[in-house]
Design a protein that fits this description.
The radius of gyration is 45 Å and the shape is flat. It has 182 residues and is mostly helical. The protein is built from three helices and no strands.
Length: 182
């Protein structure tokens, strides 16, 4: 049994349309009409099949377009949700930093206020002397802490550079038998 080049194959479980004439089983009147007009006997059937094929193709494209639109909408919503969640996390982190910073400032204020009142009481209930001494000591402590941190960082960086140059000199000695100092 020969298959016709325009015959449809089953689509989505639907059987192909039944053809009255297949290959050698053509009806004599179809052969007569074909020989008189030089048009294929099943030209009408072929045109109908092409129309159906075009309708099916358009329907498939509409379906594909809907699926692509659905995918694009889902991806867009996913990105929006991700951005929204990231913004929420940033806002919560900022609020957390503000709250912790406020707590630290408040605790520091209470400590320094208590120290200044205590020092003021030592100097005969002169609050201004206690506040002045406490402020100077606090500023000196912050300055000393910053200086110590900067010195430690500078020394660590210097030691790291010295180690790098010593390693480079050792490689030069191993490779050339002498180093830059020779």
């Amino acid at each position: 049994m020969r298959s016709e080049p325009h015959a449809r194959h089953p689509v989505r479980g639907q059987p192909p349309p039944e053809h009255r004439f297949n290959g050698d089983d053509a009806a004599p009147e179809a052969v007569e009409s074909a020989s008189k007009t030089d048009v294929p006997a099943d030209a009408g059937q072929q045109e109908l099949t092409e129309r159906e094929g075009l309708k099916l193709l358009l329907k498939e494209f509409q379906e594909l377009r809907e699926y692509v639109a659905y995918y694009a909408a889902a991806r867009t919503d996913s990105v929006r949700c991700s951005v929204r969640n990231a913004l929420r996390r940033i806002v919560l982190a900022a609020l957390g930093f503000v709250a912790v910073g406020a707590l630290i400032v408040m605790a520091s204020w209470f400590v320094l206020s208590g120290i200044s009142q205590g020092v003021g009481a030592l100097f005969g209930d002169r609050a201004w002397i206690g506040t002045l001494i406490t402020g100077v000591l606090a500023l000196a402590g912050v300055g000393l802490g910053i200086f110590c941190a900067a010195s430690a960082r500078k020394n660590a960086s210097r030691k790291r550079r010295v180690r790098e140059y010593e390693t480079r000199n050792a490689r030069q000695r191993a490779r050339f038998g002498r180093d830059v100092h020779d």
